[in-house]
Amino acid sequence: MIDALTLDQLRAFVSVVEAGSFRGSAKRLSRVQSAVSYSVGNLETQLGVTLFDRSGHRPKLTPQGLSLLAHARSILLKVDAMRARARELGEGVELELSIVIDSLYPMPWIMEALHAIRRSYVGVSIRLEVLPLGGPPAAIQEGRVTLGILAGEDLTDSRIELEAMHSHSFVAVAARTHPLAAAAEDLDTLEAVVLAEHVQIVLSDPTQITEGRDFGVLSPTTWRVNNQETKYAMIRAGHGWGRLPHWVVDKNLASGELVRLPVVALGLGGQTDVQFYLARRIDRPLGPVARAFREAILANHASGT
């Protein structure tokens, strides 16, 4: 009966295929050859099919055996994953890692760190939020996430523990076709009186944390967007000017599609360096997966990848 199938039989079947012989399978499984043959024979009886043609020097899969091989491998893979997950749970491994990332942070570094998590913790679920301004600190304060990456420390409070990582540069830019691009060629600095005539593209805060406050807003007329991708697209399209992370626009600047604006109020040459921090609530210690993510992010910073 199929209900009597065992994992031992399936492992013997797959092992014979991979080793190329019953003797090789026995060596792999640290068993005697007769035991492997017995397991495969019982499996064939219960399935009602012949898995191997044994008439030659080496066993050869029958068409039925070839068809069932993928199913056997899939079952064993799921069982092994279940065992690994149970072992992780016994060691206190989290069921889910929830992370919030400031939208200004380089996403390639996040993807690299997540690769490290997948290699070590296959069964862990990941929940990733990417938010601007007060979104990341609010998510940490409210306990919605385990770990966050924040841009600057202005929006945090005493409940959040910070660990400085690395700073990234931000530059004021406009499309090559924008009037401010031509002005930048004629002027060493762009002052507020010049900027006042043009729309500034600004990120809006999804929370109330920055209510009544603006960061780097110099133009009286603003277009506000809720994500970095839209801000980038609007500036590229020539709808206005704004600050963007250098890692986002370096290729556009090199090609001449975007032009740096020497906005004196935003730093030398219109460039500002922003410090990023790993952040968590002080009353929420990190589990093994969160610690592994932290280590992977810090390793990325150390190597400069």
Task: Please explain how this structure is put together.
Pfam families: HTH_1 (PF00126), LysR_substrate (PF03466). Belongs to the LysR transcriptional regulatory family. The chain is α/β, with parallel strands linked by helices. The chain has eleven helices and eleven strands. The protein has helices at 7-19, 22-29, 33-47, 63-90, 107-120, 135-141, 179-186, 192-195, 228-236, 246-255, 288-303, and strands at residues 52-53, 60-61, 96-102, 125-131, 147-151, 160-175, 200-203, 222-225, 242-245, 258-260, 271-281. The strands form three sheets. Strands 3, 4, 5, 6, 9, 10 and 11 form a seven-stranded mixed β-sheet that branches. Helix 1 packs across helix 2, helix 1 packs across helix 3 and helix 1 packs across helix 4. The radius of gyration is 29 Å and the shape is elongated. The two termini are 55 Å apart. The model has no long low-confidence stretch (mean pLDDT 86).
Quickly count the helices: 11
Terminal-residue CA separation: 55 Å
User: Which structural class fits the helix and strand makeup?
Assistant: alpha/beta
CATH architectural grouping of the largest domain: 3-Layer(aba) Sandwich
Number of domains: 3
Q: Got a strand count?
A: 11
Q: Helical percent range?
A: 40-55%
Strand content: 15-25%
Mean pLDDT: 86
CATH class of the largest domain: Alpha Beta
Give the H and E element order.
Answer: HHHEEHEHEHEEHHEEHEHEEH
Low-confidence stretches: none
Largest sheet, if any? 7 strands, mixed
Shape summary: elongated
Round the Cα radius of gyration to an integer and report it: 29 Å
What is the CATH fold-level name of the largest domain?
D-Maltodextrin-Binding Protein, domain 2
